[in-house]
Structure formats: C-alpha cells, structure tokens
C-alpha cells in the first residue's frame, strides 16, 4: 500500500440541513476532507460526492460553494493566507465558514461570460488572485499552454467546443487561486476520448498543489471513484426524510487510490458494486 | 416558399420582397383610389422636393433634434436603469416605466412653463416621451439576466459593484444598442408631433403639418416616404454598428 498520512481538516460539513417549505432535502450532512500527505510528492485531495438524480446533489453542491445558505449547519474551510513579515512572505491558516468565492466552481454547463473572449475572462480571473499580481499574463500563458488552449485566447465561449469550454472554466477557477475546486457533473455528456482527457486533467490539477482539493459531484460512479481518494455517498435512509451521507469509502485504505489501471482491479469492481447498493 | 417554417436564401428573399413591392405599386398605379395620389405622382413630387433646399434644411433640423434627444434619453435611461439595482433608486425606475401611460398632449403646457424656448420644449418633450420606453425595455433585459451570470461573478470573488459593472454595464452593452435600435422608431414618430408645437424652427414635422393644412396629399406622402426610408436607414446603421462593436452578438 502507498505510504500516506492524513493531517489537518481542510473542509468540514457539520449537520448541514436544507428544507424547501415542508420538504426536507438534506438532513444532517456530516463529512470532512483532510489533507493527505504522501512522502516525496505533492498530493492534493480528490473527493467524490455520489448520489442518484434528485437526491439533492446540486443543493449540496451549491451549499458547499457558498452560493446557497443551508437551513442549518455549516461548511467550514481551512483558509491559507499569505502574510508579509520581516522575513518575507509566510502562509498563515485559519478556519472559517465558507463564503461565495472561496471555492473554484465549475458548473455543469461550463458557463462563461459570452461577451468576453477566453483571454479576457482568464485575465479577469487572474486579477482576482493577489498572488499573481503583475504576473497574470505569464500565468495565463502557462495554463493555456498546459491545457492546450493557447489558440483560443481571442475566441468567444460560443466558438469553443464543450471540452474546450470545460478547460477554460477550470483554468479560470485555478487562476482565481482557490485551493478548492468544486465540479458539478464534470463527466456528463463527454465522449470517451474527451472523458479520458478530462480525467487526466483533473489528476494533473490535483497534483499541482499539496492543498488543492477537488470535490466532484457526479452520478458517474466508476469514473468519479477511479480518480478519487474518498467517496461520499449521498442517499436516503429508510424511514427518514431528506438525504444524508449514508457511507464514506476510503479508497486509499482499500489501496484503490492513485492507480492508473484501477478500473481493472477486482477490489475496485467490488467497491463500485458496493456503492451502487448504497444508492 | 408557401410552406410553414420553410427556409429561403437571402437572395430569394430580396427578389421576393422587390417583386411584392413592385406588384403593390403596379396595382396602386393601375387603380386610382379617389383623391389618393398614385405612386408615379408621389415619386415626381419626391424628385421635386429633393431639388429644393426646403427638404434638406428641414430634414437636418429634425435629424439633429432626434439625435440630441436620443443621446440625452440614452444617458438618462442608463443612469436610471443601472441605479435601479440599488433598492433606494428602484421606485424611481418603476415610476419612469409607468410614465408610458401619460399622454404628452396633456403635459405640453407644463413643459412650456418649464422650458425657455421652443427648441427646449421640443427636446424635453421628446426625452420625456422616449425615456419611459427605453427604461421599460432595458429593465426587462436586467430582469431576464441568467442567474448563472451573477453566480459566476460570485465564484470569481467579485464584490457587488464589480458584478454590476461586469454583468449589467459591460455584459448588457450590446442590448442597449438593440433597445435604441428598436425604439428609434418611437423617437422618429414623435418628432413629427413635437415639431408641430414650435413650427418657427422648421423640421420635417412642421413641413408635414404645413402640407397637410393645404391638403397637399402628394407632398405629404412623399415626405412620409422620406421619413420611412430614414427610419429604415437608421435601423440598418444601428444594427451594423452593434455587430461591429459587439462581434459576439453575431455568433
């Protein structure tokens, strides 16, 4: 098994509930994401939130992103902030409730401003990141080269393919500088070739920084689980209203994380079956 | 060509329109209706009007007044609409929208008291007539903004003023042009009415009233034709300008 340790809690969902009128959508959702340390390498976190259609994934996604307030409970994140002192710049950490803008959010339809070219959109996002002050253009160039989008900088979103739009959305949120990247159904509607590229891209992002945390909300169980280190299953418990986390599966413990051919392993196939049974 | 939702080429469309217009004119020419002048008579009158300075001078007066009114109206509309997203200013915008139901005729005397001369009276009446329509259209654009535009701003960490700038001011600039284009007709229609209030300064409206007074229907229709063509030209120009300034609208 790969050596690893779990350290500080990066995100904590505590008793999150949501009601629409009398209808309970989410009930006592509790989970946490911890910083995973792998000796000798920079390893971010990839977490999947899996559930059936209509189970409340989108609502939980919006609550996690700070775009919607929960009826009760809270989402707390560990924030990293650079501070200047006599010895130069150091990073300090503090825990606080999530607010809109804390998470990098990639919507299912990769929404972009239709009046901005790709270059303009990326520049606007980079300007929001104080760490990139004065180096925005370089950062954009680096990311667009890496994600094969250099030729699209002068194009409008309407001129891009679905895959290109998704990559632009990801770069935009990466440039903004958030440690958390929240993705709503990133594998939905993609053909097999593009799907492989997206998976590769997400893995690349997760390895770009120790604290980079990807939260994937999806109903594509196999693809999501194949790149995750932890799977949270959102479902309903018999006799209780609303959805909650019915199971947490630690894929590292099962030696199913960070493996390129994990889909072919017997244990992975069994895990997928186990997840399906929980839904 | 006779099937519902059938798509036809641009070339075929032009040919079809030209043929329909020619057919209408031919029928009109061949069957005179009482005192209504025939197309050839109107075209001759139009030719005569073009040879006099009268038409050009009056046309310039009207165009300048319309453009002036449009500029002031657009500025006033933008100010009211942008401010309408701030709750304190929303009632003002809503009131302006409701002013569409006020008739200008009933307000002429009040405006006469409030303005210094005929020129100011015409300009202020035009602005008062145009702004409610512009504001109504622009407010409806703001009301229909996709929620995701605001949410994208939120996820990018924009504050509310940055969101206002990005989503409404920059993001809807193309729509402002479209609204001006669509509502130019209102301004152009009103110009003939307000020019009748102070005829000493001339204008195509004053000229129209003069010809109407003497039942000179041939010149009235010739002037109507000019008003119609100028309206169409402005419509095309504003559309072309919008496409040039905001290329993404064509995508």
SS-based structural class of chain B?
Answer: mainly alpha
Major sheet details of chain B: none
N-to-C order of helices and strands of chain A: EEEHEEEHHHEHEHEEH
The global form of chain A is: globular
Q: What is the number of independent domains of chain A?
A: 2
The CATH architecture of chain B comes to Orthogonal Bundle
Helix content of chain A: 25-40%
State the CATH superfamily name of chain B: MetI-like
End-to-end Cα distance of chain B, whole Å, is: 27 Å
CATH class of the largest domain in chain A: Alpha Beta
CATH fold node name of chain B: MetI-like fold
Q: Topology as H/E string of chain B?
A: HHHHHHHHHHH
Structural class of chain A: alpha/beta
How many beta-strand runs of chain A?
Answer: 10
The rounded Rg of chain A comes to 19 Å
How many separate helices of chain A? Answer: 7
Q: Roughly what is the average pLDDT of chain A, rounded to an integer?
A: 90
Q: Kindly, what is the distance between the CA atoms of the first and last residues of chain A, rounded to a whole number of angstroms?
A: 28 Å
Describe the SSE topology.
The complex is a heterodimer of chains A (279) and B (251).
Chain A: E1 5-20, E2 23-37, E3 45-51, H1 57-65, E4 72-85, E5 88-97, E6 103-106, H2 118-127, H3 136-146, H4 162-176, E7 180-184, H5 192-206, E8 213-218, H6 221-227, E9 230-236, E10 243-250, H7 266-278
Helix pairs in contact in A: 2-3, 2-4, 6-7
Chain B: H1 10-30, H2 39-51, H3 53-83, H4 90-98, H5 108-114, H6 118-143, H7 147-155, H8 160-170, H9 173-195, H10 204-213, H11 217-245
Helix pairs in contact in B: 2-11, 3-6, 3-9, 3-10, 4-6, 5-6, 6-9, 7-8, 9-10, 9-11, 10-11
């Amino acid at each position: 098994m790969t050596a690893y340790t779990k350290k500080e809690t990066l995100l904590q969902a505590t008793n999150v509930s949501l009601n629409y009128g009398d209808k309970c959508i989410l009930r006592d959702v509790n989970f946490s994401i911890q910083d995973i340390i792998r000796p000798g390498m920079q390893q971010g976190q990839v977490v999947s939130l899996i559930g059936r259609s209509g189970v409340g994934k989108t609502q939980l996604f919006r609550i996690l992103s700070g775009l919607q307030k929960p009826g009760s409970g809270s989402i707390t994140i560990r924030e990293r902030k650079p501070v200047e002192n006599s010895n130069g710049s150091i990073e300090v950490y503090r825990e606080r409730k999530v607010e809109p803008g804390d998470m990098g959010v990639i919507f299912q339809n990769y929404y972009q401003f239709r009046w901005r070219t790709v270059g303009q959109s990326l520049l606007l996002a980079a300007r929001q990141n104080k760490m990139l002050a004065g180096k925005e253009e370089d950062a954009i160039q680096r990311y667009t080269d890496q994600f094969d989008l250099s030729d699209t900088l002068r194009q409008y979103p309407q001129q891009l393919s679905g895959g290109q739009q998704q990559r632009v959305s990801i770069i935009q949120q990466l440039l903004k500088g958030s440690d958390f990247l929240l993705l709503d159904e990133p594998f939905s509607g993609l053909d097999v070739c593009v799907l492989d590229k997206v998976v590769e891209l997400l893995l690349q992002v997760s390895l770009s920084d120790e604290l980079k945390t990807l939260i994937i909300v999806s109903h594509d169980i196999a693809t999501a689980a194949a790149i995750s280190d932890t799977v949270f299953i959102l479902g309903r418990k018999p006799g209780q209203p609303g959805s909650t986390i019915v199971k947490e599966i630690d894929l590292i413990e099962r030696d199913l994380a960070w493996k390129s051919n994990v889909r072919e392993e017997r244990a992975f196939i069994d895990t997928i079956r186990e997840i399906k049974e929980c839904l | 060509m006779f099937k519902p939702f059938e798509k036809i080429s641009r070339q075929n469309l032009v040919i079809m329109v030209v043929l329909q217009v020619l057919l209408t004119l031919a029928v009109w020419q061949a069957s005179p209706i009482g005192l209504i002048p025939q197309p050839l008579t109107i075209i001759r009158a139009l030719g005569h009007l073009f040879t006099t300075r009268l038409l050009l001078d009056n046309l310039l007066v009207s165009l300048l007044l319309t453009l002036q009114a449009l500029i002031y109206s657009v500025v006033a509309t933008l100010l009211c609409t942008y401010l309408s997203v701030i709750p304190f200013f929303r009632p003002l915008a809503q009131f302006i929208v409701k002013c569409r139901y006020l008739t200008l005729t009933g307000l002429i005397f009040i405006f006469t008291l409030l303005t210094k001369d005929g020129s100011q009276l015409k300009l202020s009446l035009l602005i008062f007539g145009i702004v409610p329509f512009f504001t109504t259209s622009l407010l409806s654009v703001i009301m229909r903004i996709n929620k995701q535009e605001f949410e994208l701003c939120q996820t990018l960490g924009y504050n509310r003023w940055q969101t206002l700038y990005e989503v409404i001011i920059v993001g809807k600039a193309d729509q402002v042009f479209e609204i001006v284009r669509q509502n130019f007709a209102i301004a152009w229609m009103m110009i003939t009415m307000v020019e009748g209030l102070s005829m000493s300064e001339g204008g195509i409206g004053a000229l129209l009233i003069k010809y109407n007074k003497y039942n000179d229907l041939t010149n009235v229709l010739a002037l109507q034709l000019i008003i119609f063509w100028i309206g169409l030209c402005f419509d095309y120009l504003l559309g072309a300008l919008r496409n040039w300034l905001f290329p993404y609208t064509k995508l």
